[in-house]
Structures are given as C-alpha cells and as structure tokens.
Design a protein that fits this description.
This protein is of the alpha+beta class. About 20% of the residues lie in helices and about 20% in strands. The chain contains 5 helices and 6 strands; from the N terminus they run E-E-E-H-E-E-H-E-H-H-H. A hairpin with a 4-residue loop joins strand 2 and strand 3.
Length: about 160
Amino acid sequence: MHGTQPQVLEVKSAPAGVLLRADEGQHSCWFGSWLAQNPAATNLGLMALERATSVTEALALAPAVGIPHQNVVIGDAQGHIGWTIYGRIPEDTGPTRARGTAPWTTAADHPRIVDPPLGRIWTSQCARGLRRSSAATHRRGRGGAGCAIRSRGARRPDPR
C-alpha cells in the first residue's frame, strides 16, 4: 500500500498448486493452479484457424488450441454461426487437474453452440457494453457501437 511499510506475503505451494486456504481443524487444504503452467495446455494450435473455411472446421479446432480461454464467435460464408471456448479444458476439476494428468475435452465434448434456433449469438462482453451506454460513453466513442457491429456479424442471414 502506498505510504505504508512493505508487507511480507508468505506464499506456500505444493505439486497441487499454490496454497489458497488451509483448515487445520478439518485437516484440509485448497490449492489453486493455473493451466498455462501446464506445458500440455499451451501450443501454437491457434494458427490452424487460418486454414479453417467453415464454422464446423473452426469449432473442431477449439479443444486443441493452447491459449488462455477465450469466448469465440465465428461465422462463415455459408451463413452459419457458432460459439465455443478456445483453449484446452481439462475434463477433471480435482487433484489430477492440478497435477496436469487429467484428460482434455475432445471435439465430442467441448462446449459449443452451432446455428442456434433464434439465429443469433450474444457474448457477455457485448451485454456489459450495452448496459454501460450513456451520453458520456457515446461522446468518448465507447457507447456499445462495437458490440452492435459484432452482434450484426454474429447473426444468421434472414431466409426471407
């Protein structure tokens, strides 16, 4: 804190990750780990997106893309749209995940939405931007216009 004496922060870690909380009375500990520290979680798989020509191809890449998790909305020339999470997702949430030994999701079980019945996909980033719209943000150029543009781009063409 500014203007105060430096504080010492003791950080304890173990193979399961960084110790977040220890309850000596219950003889239990909670550890946190970051997937990016697992060598199998990071790679250059995102580069394959350059060759994808359809929503189906782009979504199939998601389980193998080794980047920090990102919401991805994709559209193609045939009018299909889809959403997924780019980034490797372990199937387990327990100690095997922290040790990096949990299996990863595959194309069969990785989360995705393709061509939703209403023909639109909205991300939480756009919803947040639209709620913050005001005269002041419009003057600064951040009044949700980018979200409106993106939302039009994540819409299937009207078949009429």
